Amino acid sequence: MCKLLHSFISYITMLFKIDILKQIGEGTVTTAYRRWAKPAVKAGNTLMTSVGVLKITSVEEIDYTTITDKDIQKAGLKNRAQLDKELSFKKDGTLYKILFRLQGEDPRLALREETDITVEEFEQLKTKLEKMDKTSKYGPWTETILKLIAKHPGKHAIFFAEKLGMEKDWLKLHIRKLKNLGLTISLSVGYEIAPRGEKFMQMLAKETR
Question: Distance between CA atoms of 151 and 163, rounded to whole angstroms?
Fold first, then answer.
């Protein structure tokens, strides 16, 4: 599982709104439109989302005038006005049509329940967190945020950001990295420590005694 998840972490993110993600999970949305200076994904890429892993099957440059009402519905949008609003966030660049399919369940769901952490896995996790600490503009933060999330489950990122004197968006992005390692869980509101995260912290505490 760890090796499988490690390969997922490098996948490129293409953000979807919550209502679109729900339709992707139901299998009714298989298309997206994006305007990019250059494609951010390519056919064959795999994208990890909250509803599962998406397989990108096609990325092609298109002419806006060729998009039909049926195409718009396949993107989970009600009408052309909604499409225009989506595309208006980035006015420059080339328009691309992205086709995808739901390939499978998010592997992090199973990983976060794995509490039989071997000594080798523990050392690997420590090394990854130490690297994240060293490259952080805020200095060491990973153990601190894990302890805070365990103590304050369900709190928004802004709560932790203000407590630690960090930028909210930076912290949200980096908590997601902890989620990728199976250490935290994103709730509908805020976060909580995952069973794997609890076990890791217990092992860390024993080591530092």
Answer: 13
Taking residues 184-202, report their average pLDDT.
92
Token look-up 């490690």 returns 6
The closest of 62, 166, 63, 50 to 108, measured between CA atoms, is 50
Residue written as token pair 């299998």: 27
For residue 78, CA distances in Å to 26, 62, 114, 136 come to 17, 20, 41, 42
3-state SS, residue 83: helix
Domain residue limits, the chain? 2-105, 112-207
CATH of domain 2-105: 3.10.400.10
Determine the 3-state secondary structure of 66 from DSSP: helix
Secondary structure (3-state) at 65: helix
101 near 44, Cβ under 8 Å?
Answer: no
Residue type, 174: H
Check pLDDT > 90 for residue 17: no
Name 129's bridge partners: none
Q: Quickly name the fold that domain 112-207 has.
A: Arc Repressor Mutant, subunit A (1.10.10)
Q: Quote the percentage of the chain above a pLDDT of 70.
A: 91
Percent of the chain with pLDDT over 90: 61
pLDDT digits (tens, 9 = 90+) for 147-164: 999 999 999 999 999 999
